[in-house]
Structure formats: C-alpha cells, structure tokens
C-alpha cells in the first residue's frame, strides 16, 4: 500500500487538500468555567461543515482568569466560513442566539487581523436604545470599545468589533484505516486529542471525528458532495475501492486553523499520536483526503509530516 | 531633551499653543526664539521669555512654570512635555497624543478638546478641567487626564469621551457630560448634573441631583474592565472600582444614559 511507515504503521504517500477560508476567534467569559463552557458548547453546535451549517466552529482553548480581558474563566472559540460576509452572518447569529442568551457571559475579540467584523456594534440593537458604549484601555494599553446591553441578569458586555484573519485554512485531514469500529475509534480519539492541542486549530466534527467522509459531487443531480465510496468498507471489492480486504472501518479527522502552519502542526500531532497508539489498536494505515489537488491550494503531504518537528 | 527655561514672571499672558517637541525639532534655536507667544501688542516672542536649548528630541522640558503660561502643550501629537511648575488655562488644549506632565497646578479648562494622549497634573486643577470652553460643543474628547490633587468645579463639563481621574473635585463634577468616564475619590454636590451619557465612579459625594434614580448593587463585567484599566493609572481608583458600589442612573432630566457608581 505504501513505502512510508511511521511507528510501524503504513502511511500512504498522499496529501490532504485544504482551502482558504475566512476565520475569526472570540473569547467568551463567565463567572465559572462551567458556564463559559456551556456558552461555548452551544455556540459551536451545528457547525461541523460550512456547506451544510454555514460555518465550522470549535473550542480552541479553555482560558484561565489571568488569560481573559475581565479576569474571569473563559473559552476561546474559532469560527470559520467560506468568506468574510458569510462568517459575519454566522458570527452574529451564533453570538446573538447562544452567547447573549447565556447567563453571565461576556464576549471579546480573540484574535487580531485585517478585516473588521462588527459584533457588539450590531448586537447592541437588542438593547432597544438602552445600550451604552464604553471605551476601556486593555492590559496592553490599547483602547477597546465595548457595548453594555441591558439584559435581565444585568448586562451583556460585548466588544464592538472582532477581527477576521488572513490565511485561515479549512480542511486539513487524516483518515485512519482500522479493523474494528471500537479500536479505530480509539485511535481517532487519541489523534483528536493530539491534534486539538495545537493552538489556533479546531476539529469541528462530533468529537473531532467524521465517519461520513465525502467526495465532490455525486451520481444524483445537484448533489454538492456525496459519500466517499472509495473508503466505505461495505463497498470493498469494487474497482474504485481504496481499502485493503482486512479494513473494516475508516474514520477521519478534519482540521481548521487560523494559519496554514497550525493545520500542518495539528495534522503532524494527530498522525504521530495515532501511529504511536495504532499497533495496539489494529490500525492498518493512515491516509488523507484530497480532490486531485485541483480545488484547494493548500496541500499537506503526509511524507512531510513524518518527522516530529517541522523543518 | 530640549529645554525652555523661563527667564522670569511673564509681563502678560503667554500663549504656548503649538510649542511642541515636533514643532521645535524643525527649527533652529534662533528660529524658535522668534516664535510669537505674546497676547498683547507688545509682541513678545519665545526668546523674550525663555532661554532656549534644543536638541531635536521628542522630549521637551519647560523649566519654571507660571500661571500666565496658557495652552501649554496645545496641539501636542507625539513626544513628551514636562513642565516644572504651574501653568495657566487650557493646558493641552486639542492635544492628540503624547504625554504632558505638570509638576505644579493648572488653571481652568485643562485638557479641553484633547483627543488623545495623557495629561498629568501633579498639583491641583482649576475649574472645568476636561470641560468645554465657552461656546465649544465638547470638552475632553478622548484623552486621559489625571489630576493628582484637587480639581475645581465642573470637572469634565460637557466632556465627550476619554477618562478623567481626580483625587478630589468640586461641585457639578461631570455636569452636562456627553460621554466618557470620570473617577474621583471625593466630589462635591450635584455630580452628573444634566449628564446625557457617561460614567462617574465616586468614592464620596455631596448631594445628588434628584433626577438620578438608584438601580441598586450590580456585579457587572464592565466594572472589572474599568478596574483593570484604572490600575495602570491609579491603584486607589482601581480599588474604588472593586469596592461594593451603588449605581444611580441619570440624569433623567436629559437622555438618562449616564450612571454614577458610588461607594456603598
């Protein structure tokens, strides 16, 4: 199958194909880590694929009180969309419906970047004219503008605008070919933990793992994407199948990040963690998904990720 | 650093607007000496009143202050000016950036129309510090004004944005405020009279205008941000923001989007 191996596990000499996306980050704080996480979890729900959900989102990191603007526990959320306008629309909807509504939350910009997205300045209209804008200097001495919107537990404080970055990438991926569902899921879980430990990278699918890998288009007219039949074990034996006979399960992890480097490092971490645990869990091989290299300009060759650190 | 040394008590009020490190860095000492600063038909120049020593740096020291030195630091956009002594009215008028420090006291209307930078008065400030001059629409407009001594009446009168810190202030602090923030450990009667928006953070205060309504005690995130911001300027004011506070909303006679946070 492949001349490449890592920790004794075959690695297919192929590449993951990923795309330029619009990306932003926000920081959500609350009085307790529990409620910060509740807000973040709700906001990042139904955000697995930008095609069907409008955005891809995930929790990047839990923040200590020392790391947040208001000294409360927080969570950093990453949100990605096809383009800045779509990202803005999703950001407003999700902050408006999930963060504004959650008791005790406040919302801040989580990244610097060239594109301004009005956030608090748009949500303030919920305040029906009673919202107050305040300019406050942050820890670095930079003046930041916030909106204080009266709500029933006091105020929802939200930064006037957040920033979208240049260079965000969506669609880094790894596919794990295994023997049984339980064992392959364990390998994928281990890979997810390693991959999401890279700052600025998220894995938007359930638990970071997707079973319904897709190809572009389909036999049904109008389908943008359809099942990745080459990696479906029940379709083994057909000419297009890419699976060896002993493969019974394929699971994929998908990675979005604020930078291309973070995608590569996240894939590297996932690849190494999966192959280290792979022998004990029946991992047959690791590969990656691409569309022939013609759709996305970011190609992450697994060959380049075999070393522990980037060159 | 460049140094202007006052030769003696000025015979008339002097207007030092535009005498900034940047402006002086473009001039020779002889050219600087010919800058007009007088306000009468006497035609006083900078050289008549000050001994001038320039080195083109971004730091200017004015040695020997006097209450007749008006508009010191007016129009400052970058660099620093340090005055060793007192100054007259309109300190730092329309200043846009940089730092301006006065070791003594300042006359009325300090920091009026200042849009950026920081102005520090080690002594006292006259009336309407950060306030609007006559016929002006707004007073302080984005800068930070720190008064380590006592401010006079109408501190921040019609200020539009920015931050004022004072140790003590007279009556009518924050009167007719358009927006912005004032923090003072003690103020006189009727703080926030006629304020439309803005925030007053007060330790002790005199009689409140009856058109302010108490909304109770609130643990708001904004106060945390404010405390963190103030801690860079004055630990005492930051501590005040962390104390139990009672909130008043007003002035109900106007827009009523202002607030007074008073130590409980």
Computed structural class of chain B: alpha/beta
Structural class, from helix and strand content of chain A? alpha+beta
Tally of separate helices of chain B: 5
Q: Please give the count of helices of chain A.
A: 6
Which strand order do you get reading across the main beta sheet of chain B? 3-1-4-6-7-8-9-10-11-12-15-14-13
Principal-axes geometry of chain A comes out as: elongated
- What summary fits the major beta sheet of chain A? 9 strands, mixed
Terminal Cα span of chain A: 26 Å
Per DSSP E runs of 2 or more residues, the count of β-strands of chain B stands at 15
Q: What is the CATH first-level class name of the largest domain in chain A?
A: Alpha Beta
**Largest sheet: number of strands, sense, barrel closure of chain B:** 13 strands, mixed
Number of domains of chain B: 1
Low-pLDDT residue intervals, each spanning 5 or more residues of chain B:
none
The gyration radius over C-alpha positions of chain A equals 21 Å
Number of E strands of chain A: 20
The CATH architecture of the largest domain in chain A comes to 2-Layer Sandwich
Domain Formylmethanofuran: tetrahydromethanopterin formyltransferase Ftr C-terminal (chain A): 154-305
Keywords (chain A): Acyltransferase, Cytoplasm, One-carbon metabolism, Transferase
Subunit structure (chain A): Homotetramer.
Pathway (chain A): One-carbon metabolism; formaldehyde degradation; formate from formaldehyde (H(4)MPT route): step 4/5
């Amino acid at each position: 199958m492949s001349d490449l191996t890592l920790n004794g596990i075959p690695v297919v000499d192929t590449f993951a194909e990923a795309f330029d996306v619009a990306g932003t980050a926000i920081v959500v704080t609350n009085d307790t880590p529990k409620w910060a996480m509740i807000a973040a979890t709700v906001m990042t729900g139904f955000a697995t694929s930008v095609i069907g959900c409008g955005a891809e989102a995930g929790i990047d990191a839990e923040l200590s009180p020392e790391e947040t603007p208001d000294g409360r526990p927080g969570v950093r959320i990453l949100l990605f969309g096809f383009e800045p306008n779509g990202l803005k629309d999703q950001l407003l909807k999700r902050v408006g419906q999930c963060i504004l509504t959650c008791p005790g939350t406040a919302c801040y910009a989580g990244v610097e970047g060239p594109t301004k997205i009005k956030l608090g300045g748009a949500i303030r209209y919920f305040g029906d004219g009673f919202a107050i804008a305040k300019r406050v200097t942050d820890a670095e001495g930079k003046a930041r503008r916030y909106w204080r919107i009266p709500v029933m537990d006091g105020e929802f404080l939200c930064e006037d605008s957040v920033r979208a970055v240049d260079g965000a990438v969506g669609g880094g991926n790894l596919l794990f070919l295994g023997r049984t569902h339980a064992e392959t899921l364990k390998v994928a879980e281990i890979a997810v933990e390693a991959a999401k430990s890279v700052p600025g990278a998220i894995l938007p699918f359930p638990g970071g793992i997707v079973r319904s890998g897709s190809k572009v288009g389909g036999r049904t007219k109008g389908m943008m994407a359809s099942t990745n039949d080459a990696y479906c074990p029940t379709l083994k034996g057909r000419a297009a199948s890419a699976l060896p006979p002993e493969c019974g399960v394929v699971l994929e992890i998908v990675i979005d990040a604020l930078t291309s480097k973070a995608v590569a490092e996240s894939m590297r971490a996932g690849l190494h963690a999966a192959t280290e645990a792979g022998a004990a869990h029946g991992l047959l091989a690791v590969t990656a998904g691409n569309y022939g290299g013609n759709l996305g300009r970011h190609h992450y060759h697994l060959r380049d990720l075999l070393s522990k650190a980037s060159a | 650093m460049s140094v202007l040394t006052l030769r003696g008590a000025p015979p008339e009020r002097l207007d030092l607007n535009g005498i900034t490190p940047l402006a002086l860095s473009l001039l020779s000492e002889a050219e600087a000496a010919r800058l007009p600063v007088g306000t009468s038909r006497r035609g006083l120049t900078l050289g008549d009143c000050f001994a001038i020593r320039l080195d083109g740096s971004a730091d200017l020291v004015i040695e020997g202050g006097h209450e007749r030195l008006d508009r010191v630091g007016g129009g400052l956009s970058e660099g620093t000016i340090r005055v060793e002594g007192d100054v007259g009215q309109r300190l730092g008028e329309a200043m846009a950036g940089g730092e301006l420090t006065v070791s003594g006291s300042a006359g009325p209307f300090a920091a009026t129309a200042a849009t950026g930078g920081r102005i520090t008065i080690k002594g006292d400030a006259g009336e309407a510090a950060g306030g609007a001059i006559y016929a002006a629409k707004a007073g302080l407009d984005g800068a930070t004004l720190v008064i380590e001594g006592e401010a006079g009446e109408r501190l921040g009168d019609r200020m539009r944005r920015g931050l004022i810190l004072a140790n003590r202030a007279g009556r009518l602090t924050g009167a007719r405020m358009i927006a912005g923030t004032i923090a003072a450990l003690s103020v006189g009667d009727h703080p926030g009279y006629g304020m439309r928006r803005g925030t007053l953070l007060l330790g002790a205060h005199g009689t409140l205008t009856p058109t302010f309504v108490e909304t109770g005690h609130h643990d708001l995130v904004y106060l945390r941000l404010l405390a963190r911001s103030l801690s860079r300027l004055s630990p005492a004011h930051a501590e005040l923001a962390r104390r139990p506070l009672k909130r008043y909303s007003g002035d109900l006679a106007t827009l009523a989007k202002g607030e007074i946070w008073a130590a409980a």
